[in-house]
Amino acid sequence: xxxxxxxxxxxxxAFGIKHLDGIKNIDGVEVVSxxxxxxxxxxxxxxxxxxxxxxxxxxxxxxxxxxxxxxLCTPTHMHASQSLECLKAGKHVQVEIPLADSWRDxxxxxxxxxxxxxxxxxxxxxxxxxxxxxxxRKIVAGDFNIQQLDVQTYFFRRSNMNAxxxxxxxxxxLLWHHAAHTVDLFAYQTRSPxxxxxxxxxxxxxxxxxxxxxxxxxxxxxxxxCTLSLSFNNDGPLGTFFRYIGDTxxxxxxxxxxxxxxxxxxxxxKVDVSMNGIELQDxxxxxxxxxxxxxxxxxxxxLPCYQVLHALEQQLDNEKI
Length: 321
What we know:
Elements: E1 5-10, H1 14-23, E2 29-35, H2 39-48, E3 53-55, H3 58-62, E4 69-72, H4 79-88, E5 92-96, H5 103-116, E6 120-123, H6 130-140, E7 146-154, H7 174-190, E8 194-201, E9 213-220, E10 225-231, E11 239-246, E12 250-254, E13 257-260, E14 265-266, H8 277-291, H9 299-320
Parallel strand pairs: 1-2, 1-4, 2-3, 4-5, 5-6, 7-10
Antiparallel strand pairs: 7-11, 8-9, 9-10, 11-12, 12-13, 13-14
């Protein structure tokens, strides 16, 4: 591998741009190919970031010998198949959350990663946000133990729009995408496997074909519990908000910011080299490639999350019968 890691990024939408902005701050990494659904808009984005090669087919980027690694920011239903495609082409891969939208596909990616030994990780960004890193370090040091994690994931998406308010070509999902963040984070922060999981959901949207409201309860082996509320019907405030209730304090995490239970802001600016969770996620991916090691949020590490999501999906499907 050359000194500079050459990257292909697939998905020139809202989240792909976040990765491009983060990678600009990382030395020794160059995005050499950009893949998008619409050629003209992809060319425009590539020009803005000085990317020479543009394609509408991932295979065209994988055929470039100079490409060492791929970041996938494509629609959810493409994640597993494209991850397999990258690994088969001998490329390291980071796939945005979720790894897959089925347990079978998640297992297939994990198995191929084991066979190839390539670096493969999933974008479980909450592991990297400075706010959650700060809490994690207190847990590892033995200074804080979670009793309950209370999470609200709220959006206003009664039509099929992306984070920039643009029409989407695919449908997002509360369980396989948004719940995946919290299911993985809960197990990661408690440092204990999830042993109980329960879910209920509201009516299925007549056009989108998905539940617009969902509630999930989790319990870890060490006794901690998690309550997760998700909605696409919420008309503000929008985003995901975490309340850590523990034995020595209460902490409120709002993306990269952290507060105590009295709403006093905690300085997390020295936790890592950046306050941008996406950038930190990308730094871990490239560092793992250089160092030949397993990254935090590797496919193997996040796989139990998708087993829990599978069990919850089965539970919800059985309730329909």
